[in-house]
Specification:
Radius of gyration: 18 Å
Shape: elongated
Strand content: over 45%
Amino acid sequence: MQRDDTTTFANDGTYSIVSLENGTMTVAYLQRCMTAINETCAQFQASIDCGSTGLACGTRGFSASCSANAAGNCECIENFTNSTTHEDGTYTLSGNMLTMARTDSTTTPLPVDYCVQGNTLTMRVTSPTYTGSAIVTHTRQ
């Protein structure tokens, strides 16, 4: 799976991210999650597969093929072909913390550690739900 992001931070405190994804990913959605949303694996595939449903998926370039595996989980092979997504929001800086708030979200944004050296922005992203962190690097073009 390859993902290329173009991120723009404007002086007025707004940001924009355009992401382009290509590749294939296999994801197993747990049986308890399928039960929680009250869908079979086939129904779930129909709800997410732009290729077979005729949904207004815009520029997603996404298709999926799902089936139940031996553990009862819904295993999906997800294909991304020039799948484009957009994210807009506002950002604030405080010391070495960067907080990005999505325009289309009501969740409380989490601040991330950041550092700028030359043309490189590095962020250490953590999650309150998962253990560990991810390092995200952006290079000025």
